[in-house]
Amino acid sequence: MILFSIGFGPDAAGKVMMNFGPLNKPGGHRRLNVAVSRARKEMRVFATLRAEQIDLSRTSAPGARDLKHFLEFAEHGPSSPISVSTSRTMSASARPIRARSIRRPIRKHSLSGGTSLGSCE
To answer: Is the pTM higher than 0.70?
Structure first.
């Protein structure tokens, strides 16, 4: 089990700065991908920051975008709003995580399925 703590959050006034440290830098989305893909069976996420607090109109960093999507998934699970939009909005390095998270429950019920079907990439 991985215990994953998000160290970013709102200030005392409730404002969230869109500075997510290394995630805002070039390649930052890859750091997030490495961090969230290490759990073999289970990950528990601890955060005061909520996905809806990340305003993507205030940052263009792929790492910030992927953090928002990761938090949406952590909060809502497989039925998260990103289930449909992930393939177009999430960075290429983060997509395999999403594919595995969808494929696992399908295989658990003895069903088969592929990934990236219909993808234009």
So the answer is: no
